[in-house]
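User: structure tokens for Response regulator, please.
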Amino acid sequence: MINGHLRVVLAEDSVVLRDGMVELLGARGCEVVATAGTAPELLAAVAEHRPDVAVVDIRMPPTHTDEGIRAAVEIRARTAGVGILVFSQHVEAAWASRLLADGAAGIGYLLKERVARTSEFVDALHRVADGGTVLDPEVVTQLMRGGRRRRVDTLTPRERDVLELMAQGHSNRSIAALLVVSERAVEKHVAAVFTKFGLRASDADNRRVKAVLNYLAETVS
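Assistant: Done. Predicted tokens:
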């Protein structure tokens, strides 16, 4: 990223949607350096351009099953420093867990129908490019459902709420505002989550998110 200018590779097999996203992102100060309609095109574009972020749809030609997210996992393994934002209509918990297996920093997973404004999407791109984590709540829910639930089931309902908001990248202050409780109460819930998961707490929100998501990813069967 040069002077705040975000370089993006966009993988989307719908030409109409792809062209529209290129125009919208350009108007928001992002540069789409390449577009791809297939997974091999995506891999080639990332290798050539080394973008700040690759935006990836899950289902791409030829089989329209999981080519996109397979390519995202490959990019993650091959090309350090390239953020991955999965942008799809579908939640694929098993593949999401593989994508998160080596850490959640620089990973996003948003559902198309739940992004209400272009500004939300662009903000997510910047957060992922900066090494942050952006996950739709439904993705987190599916990850939690997919795992061996012993430790997750030890959480109280409020601790589970806090965990999901942590996974979305919210700070303690933001969680306190959303749940209408004190920041001190949130700190206690966060500490309880780490204790029950056997994770060491960290002062850095992104490291907290990374640790929690690593645990969730490891427990998805």
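User: Anything notable?

Assistant: Residues 167 and 209 are 5 Å apart (CA to CA).
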